[in-house]
Amino acid sequence: MPWTKDTPSVVSTGRDDRIAERSRNENWKKPPRRIETSECITCDLCLRNCPSEFGAIFNHGLDVVIVPELCSGCPVCVMVCPVDCIYVDEHWSPTEDQMWDHIAPTAEGGAP
What is the pTM of this model? Predict the structure, then answer.
């Protein structure tokens, strides 16, 4: 079965826990994705299609960004991107505190 945004997660994702701990699920085998902002047209298709159990994509100022600690590496965002600006991020860096302060309220289901 191909992966879609509605495909159930095999492993409990614990998004709220990852937000609280600011850490990535150690069981995820794929690296997270990243958006190349110089290529992105900010159409938000990736943001709107990121599976809710991950909720890893956010508007941040004029950019759309992926929070690596919340990204499982699934290909949904890549499949919907009309300009192919989303890449595997083998050497990702931890998300800055300022961004986490923006994300924390979304754990309860609020809008990012």
Answer: 0.81
